[in-house]
Amino acid sequence: MHSRDAVFLEDLCPKLRDRRWRKSIHEFTGKRCIYCGKNSESIDHVLPRSKGGLSITENCVPACLSCNGSKTDHDAFEWYRKQRFYDPRRSMAIKAWIEGDIRLALRLIKWAQPHQNKNLPKSKSVFNEDYSWQAA
Ligand SMILES: [Zn+2]
Hints:
Elements: H1 3-6, H2 8-12, H3 15-28, E1 42-45, E2 60-63, H4 65-71, H5 76-81, H6 88-98, H7 102-112
Antiparallel strand pairs: 1-2
Helix pairs in contact: 6-7
The chain binds zinc ion.
């Protein structure tokens, strides 16, 4: 019964906190899917929960329903490489994200889609102001 570990956040926190956390994940990317850049409507576990992936920021990325549904339990990087919208910069961004370097991840995403970053958050993230965007 290792699956208990996977839901520790839900167990630990009230629903409100979980909702806020989910919202903050979407706000990082300006509500864009980290894989394809469309509207993010869900949270994807990079390492699937079925394989022991935790519900923590480092393992949870904003994803559209299409990507989330298509990826299911596949390895994120293997699955992503096969997609038509594959972008190596996004792949690097996901890698940075799961290593906890959200700031680098956001830079890489911005690089991948320079014209879609108008909606990025200023400094309302749950972490610190370090993640806010500076105009280049
Ligand atoms: Zn997507």
